[in-house]
C-alpha cells in the first residue's frame, strides 16, 4: 500500500534557530528538521496548554540538537519522552536518540529505539505517523546493513520503496537495493572488518608493509574471518596474536591497541571487529576501521555490544582474563560489511575526487555542459548524471565564476537544493556534522564525502578522497584540496543560521571568491578576486530564478509546482527543458531541435520469480534499468541484473523492443560489465568489460579503489600509488617501469625516472613549477607574480621570455630578447579584443554571449565571420570567409553533420547509423561512399560509388576490442595484414611485396625496420638520446653489404644543430634568440637568413655564391615580391597579387639581364 503524500510536510525546512520565547507551532517544529528534512508529529496538534508545553519541550531538545549540543539534546529528548508519553513528537525524539546511538556504535540501543517507533505507530494512520515509520525503517535498514544482515535490510528497503509517500525515501531505497545486490555477489570482498582491524593494529605497530598486504585479503567464509584465522594471518607475517576472554572492567589491564569482537545481536546479524584504542575510568575509545569511525562509549554501553572476546599482540601469561583455545577462536567471527553511508557513486564518475576546478579554460573549447546539458550513466550504480553550466566567466586572476548544476538521479538526502529536486549547485556545497563527530560534505557535483575524527583533533577522509578537513571553530571548517584550493564553510555573515554554508573559495595564491547571503540564508552574491559581483535572485518558493553576471548576461530558471527544474535558459539564450516522473527521475530533456526520453525502472525489491530481465513496467526486484530514446527514435539501454550480478549497455544498433521472455535485450549483443567491491570502503568498481563483438578489458584495484592493473588483450599495465592517490610507478607490458617521486606533500612530482634517465621539478608554495630539468640536464625556470601568473620563463640557454600584464591583470605583451612577440587588448568582459602577432599583424575579435568568436577583422578591413545555431551552442551553421563567400552546414536532431554546402552551391551529404557512426558520404557530384561497422563500432567495409569495396578485419581471437586493424583488402582484392607489439605498435606489415618487420624499445620508440621485399633485404636502424630525439639512422642493404648512416645533434632547446652523413655533406644549423633559423652550413657552404624585428617571416636568404633573395609581404602577411640579386644586380624578380579569395591572382616575372643569342651580331 502506498502511503498518500501529505502536502503539509512537503519541502519545509529552515536553518534558522527556533524562537523559544514564543509559542511554537507544529509548522515551526516541522521546519526545525533543517537539512535533515522535515520532522513529523504523529497526531494533529491543538492550541491547548498541554500541546503548547509539549511543543516547547520538544523545541528545546531539537534546538540543542541543531546547535550540535548532542549530549544535552539526547538528555532533553529522554526527558521529553518521560514527561509527555502522549507527545506527537515522541517518535521523532526516539528517532534522534536512536541516531545518536547509531552514530556512536551503540547498535543494540539504536535498534531498540527504531523498533519502538515501528511498534508505537503500527496502527496509527496519521500521515505524520506513517512518515516517521518510514524514517525508522530507513535507519533500521542502515543498521542491518552495518551488521551484515542483508536480508532484513532488503526487506526494510522493499517496504520503504513500496509504501513511502516521499520520492526521497523511494529513491534512497532503490539505490540501496541495487547496491546491496552488488555487494552480496562480492560478499567475501566486503566481509573484511577482521583483516581491516588486524591491518590497523599492524600499522600502529609500525608494520606498514604487512598492513598493506593484510588489508587486501579476502574472507574465506560467508561469515567473515574467525579470530583463529586472524591469528594465523598475523603469524604468516611474523607476528603473534593472542585471544583472551575477559570482562569489561578487565579491559583496563589489556595492552593496547587490541581487537575486540562484537557479538551477533539478532538472527541474521553478523559479528564485527573494532579496535580498542584508549581506555580511561569512564570512557572507552574504539575505532571501526571499516567505517573509519571512532566511538566513545562508557563501559556500561559497551557491555551491551561485546561478548568478552579480544585479540592482542602479547603473550598470554601476563594478560587479564582467560586465554581462548583455538577451537573456541575458530567459532568467533566478524564480518560486518557495511555502514550507514550516504548514496554511493554520485557525481561525475570521471571527476577526480579532490579536484574542485574542472574548468575548460579556453572559451572556444569549453568543458561539456557549457551552454547545454550533457548526461551519462554510472555503469556501476546506474546513477543517471546530468550536467549544465548556464553561466560562467573567468576573471583575470583568482578562481573562475561558474554556475554549475549537476543532476544525480539517485540523490535522496540533500535538502538544500536551490535549483530544484536532485540538482546539486556547485556553490551550494555544505557540511553536516552528526553526533558522532563525523562530518559529511555534499560536494559541488553531488558526491558525499565523509570525514571521521582521527582521535587527534583532525579528520580522516573516506577512501579515494584526498582532501583535508580542518575545524577552525564550531560550525567553521576549511576543506583543503591537494592543489592548494581551500573551501571555507561557516555561518554566513548577517544571518542567524545554525548551518554552515560555503562562504569562500580561495586558490593556492590566496585569491578568493566570496559568497554573500541574505537574511533568509539564500546565496545572493558571488564576488570574484577583482571585485566583480554576480547576483542570484529567487522566486517565492525559494528556488533560484535568475543569475546575472557582472557584464549583464543572465541565465534564467523555471520550476513546476513540485520544485522540479523545468527550464534552463543560459547566458547565450539557449534553452533546455526537463520533465520528471513521480520519483523525480528525469524522463525528458529537450531543446528546440528535439527531445530525449528517459525511462528509469529502479530496483524495488519485489520478488519477480527470479526473472533476470522483467518486462517493462513490471516488478524489478533487484534489477535496475534505464532506457534512453533519442530524438530520432533510436533507443539504448543500461541495465543491472540482480539475478546475474552483472550490468550491460545495449547500443541503439542492437536494441530491441521487449517481445517476450526469449526475445528481449537480455539476448542482444551488448557491452557487459562485471563488478567488484574494494575491501576498504566498499566502493563498487568495474572488474571487467566484455565487448559486443568480442574483446575484453580487465581491471583490478588496491584496497581503497585505485586501479592497479589493466589488461586489454594486448598487454598488462601495472600501477602503484602513494597515500594521496598519486601514481608512483607504472610498468608497461614490456616490463619497463617508470617511477615517480613526490615532494613531502605527496602531491607535487619532483622526479620521473625510467631507464632513459630522470626528469626533475621544483615548486613554490602554491604548487607552481619553478624549474624543470630534462634527462640531459637542461633546465627551464619559471617565475610568477603574487597572483600566480607567469612573468618569466628562462630557457636552458638562459634566454628569458617575459610576460607583462596591464592594470587589470590581463596579459598585455610577451617579449623575448628585447623583442615584442605578442600584444593584446581586451573588451569590457576581459576577452581578447585585439592580438598583434610577431609579424605586426593585428586581428580584431568579436564575440557572442557564450564567448564564441563571431568575427575576425583583418588590417585590410576584410573579415571572417561565424554564424552559430539558434538551437544548440557551439554548433556552427555557416562560415563566411574574408572574400565574402559562405560555407553552410546542416545537422540532424543529434547534431550530426548532414550537409556541407560550399560557396558554389555544391553539397556534400552524410548519413549515420543508429550508433552515430558515419554510414555514407555523398560528394557534390552525387557519388556515394558507404561504410559498415561491427558491433564494437569498428569499420569493417567501405563501399565506393562504382561498387568496389575495401574491407577490414580485426583480431580473430578478439583480444583487441578497440580497433587495431589486422587485415585490409583493397578494392583490387589485394590483402595487407598487420601485427602489433604489446605496446600496440605496428610490428609486421605484410603486403604483396612481402613482410616488413618493426622493432621497438621498451618505450615504444622504433629501433629497426626490416624489409625483405623483391629478393633483397633492407634494414633501417634507429637510436635516440635520453630525450627521445633521433640520434642516428642507419640504412643497410644487407645482401649488398652496403649502407649509410645519418647522425644528428641538438642544442639544449632541442633544436637540431648538426646532421652528418656517411655518404654526404655535413650540415650545421644556427638559430637566433627567437628560435628562428639564421644559418645552414652545408659542407662548408653557408646559407644565411635574416628577419625584421620579431617576425618569423624570412626577409632575406644569402647563398654561398653571394646571391641574395629578399622577400616582401603585404599587411596580411601574403608574399608580394621575391627578388634575387648578385653583386648589386637583379637576377630575377617575382611580384604577386591576390584576388578576393586570397588566392594568388597574378605572377609577374622580371628578368632584367639580357640573354646571349646564338648569333652575336
What would you note in describing this structure?
This protein is mainly β. The protein contains 14 helices and 77 strands. The radius of gyration is 35 Å and the shape is globular. It starts with 25 loop residues before the first helix and ends in an 11-residue tail after the last strand.
Topology (SSEs and partners):
Blueprint (H helix, E strand, L loop, with lengths): L25 H6 L17 H18 L3 H14 L6 H14 L3 H14 L6 H20 L3 H14 L3 H19 L1 H4 L2 H12 L3 H8 L9 E2 H10 L5 E4 L12 E5 L9 E8 L4 E5 L4 E5 L1 H5 L2 E7 L9 E2 L2 H4 L3 E2 L39 E4 L6 E10 L7 E8 L14 E3 L4 E4 L5 E4 L5 E6 L5 E3 L6 E6 L2 E5 L5 E5 L10 E6 L5 E6 L5 E5 L5 E6 L5 E5 L5 E6 L5 E5 L5 E6 L5 E6 L2 E8 L22 E6 L5 E7 L4 E5 L20 E7 L6 E7 L5 E6 L5 E5 L4 E6 L5 E5 L5 E6 L6 E6 L2 E7 L5 E5 L5 E6 L5 E5 L5 E6 L5 E6 L2 E8 L5 E5 L5 E6 L5 E5 L5 E6 L7 E5 L5 E6 L5 E5 L5 E6 L5 E5 L5 E6 L5 E5 L5 E5 L13 E3 L5 E6 L5 E6 L2 E7 L5 E6 L6 E7 ...
Antiparallel strand pairs: 1-9, 2-7, 2-8, 3-4, 3-7, 4-5, 5-6, 10-11, 11-12, 12-13, 14-15, 15-16, 16-17, 18-19, 19-20, 20-21, 21-22, 22-23, 23-24, 24-25, 25-26, 26-27, 27-28, 28-29, 29-30, 30-31, 31-32, 32-33, 33-34, 34-35, 35-36, 36-37, 37-38, 38-39, 39-40, 40-41, 41-42, 42-43, 43-44, 44-45, ...
List keywords for this structure.
1161 residues; mainly beta; Serine Threonine Protein Phosphatase 5, Tetratricopeptide repeat; Cathepsin B, Chain A; 60-stranded antiparallel sheet; seven-stranded antiparallel sheet; globular; disordered N terminus
